[in-house]
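hey so u asked for the seq, here:
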Amino acid sequence: MTHGSRFARLLFAALIGAAATVGSAQAKDRRPNLLVIVADDLGYSDLGAFGGEIRTPNLDKLALNGIRLAGFHTAPTCSPTRSMLLSGTDNHRAGLGTMAEMIRPNQQGKSGYEGYLRSDVATLAERLGARGYRTLLSGKWHLGLTPEQDPHARGFERSFALLQGGHNHFGTDADPEKGGRATYTEQGKRLTQLPADFYSSDTFATRLIEFLGEEPASGKPARPFFGYLAFTAPHWPLQAPAEDIARYKGRYDEGFDVLRERRLARQRELGILGPDVAAHTPRNRDGSWDSLTADQQRLAARNMEIYAAMVDRLDQNVGRVIETLRASGELDNTVVVFLADNGAEALDVETTGAQMLAAPLKGADNGFANRGTASSYLTYGAGWAQAATAPSWLTKGYQSEGGTRAVAFISGAGIVARKGAETQYLSVADIAPTLLDLAGADAKATRVAGRKVVPITGRSWAAWLKNANARVYGADDGVGSELFGSRAYRRGDWKLTDIGDGIWRLFDIARDPGETRDLSLAHPDHKAELAAAWDRYAQDVGVILPDAIPYRP
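ran it, structure tokens below
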């Protein structure tokens, strides 16, 4: 063999090897993509697939092609739920024993009441990022305001975030030089200007789509992604594009009592509510729809039209994200988890919310013709909220089923559709271990990115997703909870509930999901046993009951 021919063969072999290396690097990692979509204050029955009349075809299709979770539970408000979602553990351990805005003097400075996601808690993004996932966030954060608490510092390599819990949906409160109070960051850097056409649901979806479309660096493998799309709709203030509001003109003129009965009937038709289940009687400070004046009814119906438009627009944007995944060929390899962060919001700007919302209400134009615009500031109140939480008791802010049983489903890659809806108890803290299992990551790891972290306490659904007869929580497994002094303890079908008035009530949730029959007198031993179990839970996670109730719609 001549030197020249030998050199040629070596060069050829090197080129073939390099080509193989590049091909290997560009090969797609076939672990599933993971997409978590959160709606803010969405009611249990707002989606068509859960009994609602609002136009939500994109979410309905995903839900009906997957598994609807009629027994899914969250914390009673947003940031505690988000801490559990991303950490897989109790909100008191994660640093959100209460909302940052609601910390009482006796809780100030106490462990578990930091008001931000603690550093000894690993986020789902940090855990998945360590396993090679792209980690993307667009939308509401509400888990800390400082640079070291920003989502970019907590594992999201690409992030477009609203740091607070709420904002003007048209973005008019972003500029600090004009008195703006909403803080937006991108990759951890504060933004002082938003797109001229900013609308929260549109922009959050657009930014996630842009993140999804970014190509891997040259020679790098195409990694699976974990996307977190956290809408702020339909959280107040009720604001929506005029064309979407117009679609619902006159739809709610018959009022919230009629809407509630129609949604209950539709839930029974869909098979997600048993025919003999009793619905809890609504608690409306203003009485029934018929007790309102004609002008009050006109304004209330308009508020609900705007709310429905916000949900409609959210669904449109979910459709845009799903179509992007379909066009890129990634949809079939993507698991989608959708949830609301708590029960429907009953706060009313004229009564229960007047003091809390005094500052933004001062400059708002809530005239009928201006409702729903960027300069209005509205909520929709207890009547509509309890139409959305029915058959459950009460709304956001309470540990009752109405405050914590939230609309949710899982769909997509490897998820086989099931008829009706699954009613067994599930927790928002279960999502992290479930997704980690699906990604082939270790959900039991207590060291992440070189630091020791608290263990995940939620339960993985992986086995149950394959076998509908499997149980995530057994009859003897207990789960405690607390927020704003409202407490609960769930074990099997039994639930002990205190809505913040200091009175324990006992319910058989399997037979009475509406919490209509207090069984305390009939089963005093059960009541005492669960009350003692709650005391042990509270000591374990460090519950500090507030010295006064900071929030009650």
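The chain has one domain: 30-472. The longest helix spans residues 294-328.
lmk if thats what u needed
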